[in-house]
# Entry
Amino acid sequence: MSLVASRWAMAQRAGSGPAKAVLLVLADAADDAGETWIAHETISERSELSLRCVLTQMGELERSGLLSRRRRHDARGRRSSDLVTLTIADLPAPDAVREGDQTAGGAVREVPTRTSGGSYTHEARFLHARGAQEPITEPITEPEGARKTSRRKPETALPDAFPDEPAINQARTTLRDKGWNIDAAAEAESFRLHSQTHDRRCRDWRAAFRSWIIKSTERAKPSQRIQPVIVESKPPTAEVWRPRLVAFADRANGFWNTTDWGPRPGKPGCSVPPALLSEFGYGGSNVVPLREGVA
# Structure
């Protein structure tokens, strides 16, 4: 990261929001000379623009003279990421240019200077750059601390004991509201093992677990799709119990939501109508579930 390149990019007029976003990403990855070989895919990820849009904006920035590109190849002759050079070198040092020193085709750029109160004011400077804009003559004052650039959270390993109980309960609520008969605790254990096995790093683990739960519904079997659980003023009907029994009897599923449905078939206090239990072959209090290993 180069503070020189970042300040320079902030002062440029790129012509559009997407172009400015690409320019800022390039500046963030560049050295003080303005050079970087960041991949287009990485630019797309950091700017949240499509790859096609990134390629288009790179061409526009090159045509406007804000950057130049040179192809690079590895030892085997295969093409690698381009060497991108921002045109920082075309600008004289800010301290060497005073107000009113406008050169041919010059444009105003703002140079931050510290005030006695600790804040920063941007004094208008005439700096040479392609694509000159109208001069800016009024000073702009920023509050204390505004000069600090915000950074994304660092990526970390999976915290101990995560997903924790609040995350699992939130997953249960999501699955219940969407009508999925999926064991949130089992999905949490799978998420934990997958993250540890692959030594995964993440900036927001709670968001990553929410994404895992959403994907679990994409992997689910049709029998795991049931009627969403809602607050009922009367006992569930046979039409409500039947999909739950189908999911419980499925050998690939076998999950019973004891939190919302009460004791599972074969356990004391099971609320499923006896006739419906018999229909599925459970036969009363001494139930042997169809899926082996489910008690």
User: Anything to note?
Assistant: The radius of gyration is 31 Å.
